[in-house]
Amino acid sequence: MALRMWASSTASALRISCGSKSHLSPAFSLSRCFSTVLDGLKYASSHEWVKHEGSVATVGITDHAQDHLGEVVFVDLPEPGGSVGQGSSFGAVESVKATSDINSPISGEIVEVNSKLTESPGLVNSSPYEDGWMIKVKPSNPSELESLLGSKEYTKFCEEEDAAH
Amino acid sequence: MSTPQTKIVPPLINLIRYNGLPILQQLHVEEQLLRTSSDNWCIVNDGTEDPTIVMGISGVPSDLLEIESVLRDGIPVIRRFSGGGTVIVDSGTVFVTLICNKEAVPDLQPYPRPIMSWSGHLYDRVFRGIGDFHLRENDYVFGNCKFGGNAQSITKTRWVHHTSFLWDYDVRNMAYLKHPKRVPEYRVARDHLEFICRMKDYMPRSMFIDRTIEALETDFSLRCIEPNGMASFLDEKFRHSTRLLTRQELEAANYASLDEISMLS
Predict the structure, then answer these.
(1) Cβ distance B64 to B179 under 8 Å?
(2) Is A96 within 8 Å of B83 when comparing Cβ atoms?
(3) Which of A73, A126, B218, B243 has an alpha carbon within 20 to 30 A of A15's alpha carbon?
(4) What is the dihedral of CA A37, A39, A45, A46, to 10 degrees?
(5) For chain B, where are the alpha helices, taking DSSP H only?
(6) Does B107 contact A103 at a Cβ distance shorter than 8 Å?
(7) Would you say B29 and B83 are in contact if contact means Cβ atoms under 8 Å apart?
(8) pLDDT 10s digits, B2-48
(9) In the prediction, which pLDDT does B4 show?
(10) What's the pTM?
């Protein structure tokens, strides 16, 4: 019973999610970084993720980011048709009296914006890798993905960042 | 044999002091320095001339303002680049803004809550021995009465933490603001005038500013910049997101709000 309770509270702390809809699996470790990091995505050191499927890349912020930001109450996103540059800001989230820039991990043309975030900004907190996606981009230079972090590297990056503070 | 101690040199911060700079101009300076400067800055603005309403980035006028009164009396309404709530500021407001590189404060994670907490420690030093000062949720309070409201904006490499301090206020001005939907828990059911207090009941104005500058010297070495020396740091072509709402926008918001009320009744 005690072991079951421990396992349950540990699973909750690790925020284990099945990620089954997107064929992604969580890569988690028992470390100070109790955030979900999914295999199959690429990550920026500014805590955005990108999922490249065919000619479209979907972008959002990571579980680590949403956890550190707090409750998201507003998401400011651009219109489709604009362009984004790798590492440049394309919008912002508001949480706890702060606006925080969102930076694109990849360059390209914005082909779709998640309009659900206007009415439901909390999706960024509850589902950062799925319903909380922010923009879809047609990449202008897919080789940019090679400069991003894989799931293991990003997990280590988060651990080191949290340990340093 | 003893090893020589390495003296840690605190990072430089540029201090600029304004007197009565219009709040729109102050916010424009801040937004530009956040986005284009690589220096750390402290801006102190002692009052702003005319009563002005300042909303956060996501502020909705019909939710936050008594728009008919605002339009009738011609009160300017600004939407600023940072998050947070709505204030009405005037000559009784003292503004203190910190704009920092993320490495400026060692071991400080550039996220809202750590920055807010760090600012609370800074102002602990300012108000030591004066009133019962706390950072309470995201406000500066004496006891459980708010006298300082905060907001932030965070980029990849820098952050702004700005505060409007209620040195004094005109009760009539507070009537332009509605009771917001989101209030801090410690406010409980109090109306606005029971919830806020005046700094002037606790310390002289000049003492507050002097103590704030002194508190900054714990973490930074200060370099004073004269207001007329700011031209080299600012570019007229910079595009600000902070802006004044037009009369047409406020009228449209009021009309939409009245329309919604009539549909519901």
Answers:
(1) no
(2) yes
(3) A73
(4) -60
(5) 23-36, 61-64, 67-73, 112-126, 171-174, 192-195, 205-216, 247-264
(6) no
(7) no
(8) 556 666 789 999 999 999 999 999 999 999 999 999 999 999 999 99
(9) 62
(10) 0.89
- Segment A12-19 shows an average pLDDT of 40
> What is the arithmetic mean of pLDDT over A42-55?
97
Distance from CA of A130 to the nearest CA of B (A): 23
Q: State whether B83 and A94 contact (CB < 8 Å).
A: yes
Structure ipTM: 0.91
Number of other CB atoms surrounding residue B185 within 10 Å: 7
**Range in B2-11, B53-62, B167-176, B196-205 the model is least confident about:** B2-11
Cβ–Cβ gap B152/A99 under 8 Å: yes
Which residues 93-152 on chain A approach chain B with CB closer than 8 angstroms?
94-101, 103
CA distance A117 to A124: 8
Alpha-carbon distance A49 to nearest alpha carbon in chain B (angstroms)? 15
Q: Please answer whether residues B173 and B185 qualify as being in contact, where contact means their C-beta atoms are separated by less than 8 angstroms.
A: no
- On whether the CB atoms of residues A63 and A48 are closer than 8 A, the answer is no
B155 closest CB neighbour out of A70, A73, A101: A101
pLDDT at A25: 52
Q: How far apart are CA B33 and CA A107, in angstroms?
A: 26
- The whole-angstrom separation of Cα B129 and Cα A162 is 34
Whether B83 and A74 lie within 8 Å, measured CB to CB = yes
In this prediction, residues B245-258 reach a mean pLDDT of: 92
Q: Which residues of B touch A (CB under 8 A)?
A: 56-58, 81-85, 107-109, 111-116, 138, 150-156, 182
Residues in chain A closer than 8 A to B109 (CB atoms): 68, 161-162, 165
Chain A residue with minimum CA distance to B151: A97
Distance from CA of B184 to the nearest CA of A (A): 11
A68 close contact with B: CB closer than 8 A: yes
Average pLDDT of chain A is 85
Distances (CA, A) of A42 to A18, A58, A142, B11: 18, 11, 12, 35
Tell me the three state secondary structure of residue B14. strand
